[in-house]
Amino acid sequence: MNKRMLPGILMLASGMAWGGTFQSTQQIQDAINQFVMSALEAGGKYEINLAQPDPRLQLPSCEQALQVFAQTGEIKPGRNTVGVRCYGDKGWTIYSTVLVKSFKDVFVLNKSMLRNDIIRQEHLNVETRDAGMLPQGYVTDISDVLDKQAARNIPAGSVLNRQLVTDPTVVRRGERVNIESSKAGVVISAVGAAMSDGAKGQKISVRNLSSKRVIQAVVVNAGQVSVNF
């Protein structure tokens, strides 16, 4: 076997002279494309760019079905090396570069938001973007951003990700809250003052206005926290 590099394609083939018919480069391209598409997640949006074979490439026509494989064992977004192998007396193997782009529908702000603003549906546009160019933590489910609170100032045109949003604050520092505690099925209520802001499910410090004790309580809703003993 000898080895030589052609633009975009690495070829391994027999060094023997060949006087028969040659393998169609279009069939090679079609086999690679079919293999790549079958290896990607069904229902996704992809752009596949195959390296064009060198016009000087002349391979013996393969009498068997072409065998296509990924050099790393898998196809994923980004640059991939794919091999095509022909078995037989005049067998050969070529390697080609395949660039896969994956596209996702993401949520983009159509107006600037200030820190603590609540993000509503009318503030969002759905746009299809190259996943390889998206920020880490981007979201594709509207429930991850709808009615959430901006964690900081966000300019219009930003692709929303989990770092940009947070659960809305329902209890503000200094507000009076109803403290509910339960023990052995008995529920006791008291009035307290929140010592910090809090979102649903968040634990905050609350001062019991009767006992003056500071306790840790979980925010249940606006004006309501709970303590379990």
UniProtKB/TrEMBL annotation:
What range does the record give for the signal peptide?
A: 1-19
**A Gene Ontology BP annotation from the UniProt entry:** bacterial-type flagellum assembly
Domain SAF, by residue range, is 104-166
What are the GO cellular component annotations? periplasmic space
Checking InterPro entries in the record gives: Flagellar_FlgA, FlgA_N, SAF, SAF_FlgA
Location in or out of the cell: Periplasm
Family annotation (SMART domains): SAF (SM00858)
Specify whether Nucleotide-binding is a keyword of the entry: no
* Gene3D superfamilies assigned: 2.30.30.760, Antifreeze-like/N-acetylneuraminic acid synthase C-terminal domain (3.90.1210.10)
Task: Provide the coiled-coil residue spans.
Answer: none
Provide the alphabetized UniProt keywords: Bacterial flagellum biogenesis, Cell projection, Cilium, Flagellum, Periplasm, Signal
Question: What does the similarity note say?
Answer: Belongs to the FlgA family.
Task: Describe the function of this protein.
Answer: Involved in the assembly process of the P-ring formation. It may associate with FlgF on the rod constituting a structure essential for the P-ring assembly or may act as a modulator protein for the P-ring assembly.
Record's NCBIfam families?
flgA_cterm
What is the protein name for this chain?
A: Flagella basal body P-ring formation protein FlgA
Q: Which organism is it from?
A: Methylomonas koyamae
